[in-house]
Structure formats: C-alpha cells, structure tokens
Specification:
Elements lengths: L1 E6 L5 E5 L4 E8 L5 H15 L10 E5 L2 E7 L4 E2 H7 L4 H20 L13 E2 L6 E2 L3 H11 L8 H4 L4 H4 L8 H17 L13
Antiparallel strand pairs: 1-2, 2-3, 3-5, 4-5, 6-7, 7-8
Helix pairs in contact: 3-7
Length: 205
C-alpha cells in the first residue's frame, strides 16, 4: 500500500510505501502499456544502473495512479534547482557539484549513452554530501517526451541549458558534447547566479 504524496520533480514523487516500511521515490512510466513491457524495461535499466553511483537504480516496479512506476531508494535529496534557490553556494560547494556532474557524465558516456536533458530540474542532489543522482537517460528521455513533447514557452527554464543543436540553431546531432555544454551552462549559473543566456520566448533561444 502506498500512502503520502510529495512531488520531488515532474519526474519523481516521494511516497511512503508500506511494503518497504519507509519513504521511497517513484517514477511513473505513462509510456509503458503492459506489465511485460514494464518488466523488460526494469531489467534493462537495472543492468544500466547497477554499480553506477550517479544513477538511480530501480529496485522494483509498482502500480501507481493506474500506471506502472519504478521504485527507487529515497536518498533524501532534492533537485539542484530547489537547492540553489534556497542556498547560497560557496565556491567549495560549486566545485564539488562540478566534479559530480563531470564524473556522472563520464560514466554515462562510457556506457554509450548521452543525457541530453542536463537541467537543474532533473539533477538531484543530497544537501549535505552534495552527491548527485540522475535518472537513467533512457527513462528520463521517454518521460520528458511524454511530459514535454515539444519545446515551448512552458518549459523555458529548461531550454536555457539546451545546446544549439537541440534548439535547431545548429544542424547537428546531439552527442557527448551536448552534455558538456549543459554542464557549462549550469556551472555558469551556479557561479554568477544568472543564466548563461536570457530570452523571453523559445524563438529567441
């Protein structure tokens, strides 16, 4: 039985689950249409995330609001966006975060994946240790595609971290360099407390 409900982000919900007797994180998968598909995806993501300290590893799946959801350990974190809004970060903290983001991207690139959605809204950080956690790129991309099928003014806060090839400014495919661009944009904001670029609408980006 699942009780309590607290949205950690648009992708994760923090809930107390009686089966585990503690608070866990749930990632709804509204793009999954069958139990077989959910089980296959669970096995695939468990292989990708096993022994990777920067990725959430799904423990199981459950039924949640008439859809399937991955169940993760709750590492008592919050989004980087929430953390930087409520805290004045020291240079030491920013360097710690920079190292975490860099190491996370290296580990994912070595697996042959790219993140492509490196935004403070989807980066999760532990407030004391400054350890970073990310969702597996496969599940994050699919969930975001469902939530945000197009780039619009509604998700303007995330567009600020997209590389030119993602916004159509450059005719190129997204690759590992796309993630490095996003990391640079995030660190610029952490240091200066302002975004790398400012725009009032999607067209200007």
């Amino acid at each position: 039985m699942i009780t309590e409900n607290l949205h950690l982000s648009s992708l994760l919900t923090r809930k107390y689950i009686e089966h585990f007797e503690r608070t866990m994180l749930l990632q709804p998968m509204d793009y999954v249409v069958s139990e077989q598909q959910a089980l296959e995806l669970l096995q695939q993501i468990q292989l990708k995330t096993k022994n990777n300290p920067w990725l959430f590893e799904p423990l199981s799946m459950t039924s949640f609001q008439q859809q399937y959801a991955f169940v993760y350990e709750d590492f008592s974190g919050q989004t980087l966006q929430q953390y930087q809004t409520s805290n004045h970060l020291s240079l030491h903290e920013i360097i710690q975060i920079a190292l975490e983001l860099t190491n996370a991207s290296i580990s994912i690139h070595q697996q042959g994946d790219t993140i492509e959605h490196f935004s403070p809204s989807y980066i999760f950080i532990h407030p004391q240790s400054h350890k970073i956690k990310l969702l597996a790129p496969t599940t994050m991309k699919r969930s975001l595609l469902k939530i945000q099928p197009q780039i619009t003014d509604k998700n303007l806060q995330d567009i600020a971290y997209l590389a030119p090839e993602q916004t159509g400014r450059v005719a190129a495919e997204a690759d590992e360099r796309t993630d490095l661009y996003a990391i640079g944009a995030i660190l610029f904001e952490l240091v200066t407390n302002t975004k790398l670029f400012h725009a009032e609408n999607v067209v200007d980006y």
